[in-house]
């Protein structure tokens, strides 16, 4: 989230505010109170430079349990406007034919569950491993 850094391998807590940055462009997933062009829901776009942006780039991780599990479904709720990151059936004709519109929806639904499908698995940090196996006496 704004002014915070996440070390690689640090688990993400359910309820934690995060910023999602596109590695190729350095732009953040961003939303604001404008209508999206196809569905009329809330627009979601890319914003900022090299991971720097503003408070409208912050999303809350909505999941069950303590941490976001790579095997589990997750929702992302915009921290400032409360919409859920969603995708429905609307597709662009131009400039990228067939690309689906990603937007923000006011209500939670099946259209705003996300699941990790590819990527690199990072081993949890040593602090997280100790926290998981600590038991009170």
TrEMBL record:
UniProt keyword Ribonucleoprotein, yes or no: no
Pfam families referenced in this protein's UniProt entry, alphabetically: MIR
Domain MIR: 9-64, 65-119
Keywords in alphabetical order: Repeat, Signal
PROSITE patterns: MIR (PS50919)
UniProt KW Transmembrane helix keyword: no
Protein name from the UniProt record: SDF2 factor
UniProt organism field: Psophia crepitans
